[in-house]
Amino acid sequence: MSKFAHLLILLCVISSQSALADGPQDNSVKNVRPIPQVGIEIPEETKTELQEKLDHLAAKINELKTPKHKEIQHLIPDVEVFHRAVTQALLHREMFHERDIKTCVTLLKTGTERAEALKLGKAPWTRQHGLVVRGFISDLDGTVQPYGLEIADDYDFDNPRPVRCDIWFHGRGERTMEIHFLSQRSRGKGPYPPTSGIVLHPYGRYSNAFKFAGEVDTLEALDHVEKNYQIDQDRISVRGFSMGGAACWQFAVHYPDRWFAANPGAGFSETPLFLKSFQGETLNPPWYEEKLWRMYDCDKWADNLLQLPTVAYSGDMDSQKQAADVMEEVLKRHGIDLMHVIGPNTAHKIHPESNQIIRAKFDSLAERGRERFPNSVHLTTFTLKYNRSNWITIHSLKEHWERSTIRANITSKNRLEVATDGITEFSINFPAGHSPFALLEVVKVDIDGQEVSTVKTKSDLSLNEHFHRRGDQWFAGPSESQVPLKKAHNLQGPVDDAMMSAFLFVSPTGNDELPNLNEWVDAEMSRAVKEWRRHMRGDVRIKKDSEVTEEDIANYNLILWGTPKTNSLIWKVAKDLPIHWGDNTINVGDKKYSNEQHVPILIYPNPLNPKKYVVLNSSFTYREYDYLNNARQTPKLPDWSIIDITTPPNFRWPGKIINAGFFNENWELKTNN
């Protein structure tokens, strides 16, 4: 092929990708197209027919939920998933072609057949080979969520043995709503159908590159599969292409000890370079947003692949080859030569011969399996959200969002050497039967050149020890610091993290004398409810402040909307927050902001239950503009910010951000704010 022909094909590929919406035309904040788009208008007669079928299925589901059928309650989500999918499509105009109507009819037929089978105590799909779709109730918001399976013919339901499971992350599909996903996963195999074992296709809460709620969705779907099928814990992998390739990179670097291998294809691996090359967008973010890129910019975490075999794939004419090229370059700095399979004369797809090469490599890696207790462990992190690998767990950082590393090596039969940077507390954890040291051996522990202590294996062949740093010295045992709060795993911020575990919106019932403020709160809360459904595909739990119970406080992160005057829970916690919201001003250190035109957004351990978060006046922080490209979908606000609401909200911001920052490691306001 001539260079001219090659260039022409490449330009056509880029042009076709732009025609699908990506590109400079999506770089205007003032002209943001809706995602998902509004679907076709359904004739009233058809709506009525679909609603009758939905009502019929709903009645069957309600009957199954009675005590008479208590033994099959755990299988009801496998029916509900069809009802919710069609309900969403019909209620919110998410059918984009006439054929989608037929898809809805087919899905309701399947759901009804399953309901009728369950009524008889049968569930044939739970013993089905090939393509299977199932559902689970998400802990995030209590909604039923779908996933798909490909189950190889050799899976023995009568005498199940642990089998390999490959997680496949799908590509971006702005029209891939629940009805389309369920239909696709009922009809078509993925690019790597299993000859043995199971392939899991998570839905990922639509089009967010399996980040935030999509990340949780994947882990919850895997947990559901592990409860219903025999999965070999040492033979689970992550794989994906396009948007799914981006997902694969982030699951690989954030959870390097969970998989036997990773296979990212195309997609993106970081934010600024990808958006410049693919989107034609030069970014100029505020300092805190740029710092928060470190949450999902995989090039910053690349050295974690020291723990995880990785086989990347790109077509040689695919503009998204950039993702693997970036990772390949940064991995070289860490001494790692990335296995990068490149499809010849190939645009944005998986080349058939490359498919076979990758399949063979993955089969070989599956035979090897995951190395659960290696002699050497390396972990890089920027947040305690992702704080463990193999037998090392990090409990405290010197400063969040700065690079922190730990490398632990078993250097002999009686010596453990650890090198750290930015770590102030960690533990080593070998469960029963897995200590690498002999029962009677006294093991010396060296940390950053200091001989800290000696440890011994317990009689059950376990070894668990904790270490903390005080000043320049390391000591055995947990930190003895008496500070009341400390950032910890899943309690470290930023605001978006509160929507990565079970949460509850709390609406205000009181009155305030500031109508502009009330209007802003009402509008932002209504928008948050709408966008959680539209973009994260769930229904938020909502209660009035007067209805919140002790059980709610114990179980949920509380997303509080309003002011101390309008929301009784904000009033209860306000005195214990580092940012003080008084009658007339909001005080941030020595800075004061008038209540009439300002609102604080923040995340903090709930003073009523410090094991959970409290958030003021915000849901996930990226907005409609960022839906247009998955690489934009990063946290936009840090631990706290002050919003000037005289500047109207737009598709990027809830108002004008006039001050913002992170709390320190003890959840205190930093002195330079």
Keywords:
673 residues; alpha/beta; Rossmann fold; 3 domains; seven-stranded mixed β-sheet; six-stranded mixed β-sheet; 14 helices; 24% strand; globular; Prolyl oligopeptidase family protein; Peptidase_S9_cat; serine-type peptidase activity; signal; AB_hydrolase_fold
Describe this structure in words.
The structure is a single chain. The protein is α/β, with parallel strands linked by helices and 673 residues long. The strands form 6 sheets. The chain has a 7-stranded mixed β-sheet with strand order 20-19-21-26-25-27-28. The chain is globular and about 80 Å long. It has 14 helices and 28 strands. The chain starts with a helix and ends in a 12-residue tail after the last strand. Strand 10 and strand 11 (392-397) form a beta hairpin. The protein has 3 domains: 124-368, Alpha/Beta hydrolase fold, catalytic domain (Rossmann fold, 3-Layer(aba) Sandwich), CATH 3.40.50.1820; 401-476, no CATH class; 495-661, no CATH class. 28% of the residues lie in helices and 24% in strands. Residues 1-21 form the signal peptide. GO terms for molecular function: serine-type peptidase activity. Pfam families: Peptidase_S9. This is Prolyl oligopeptidase family protein.
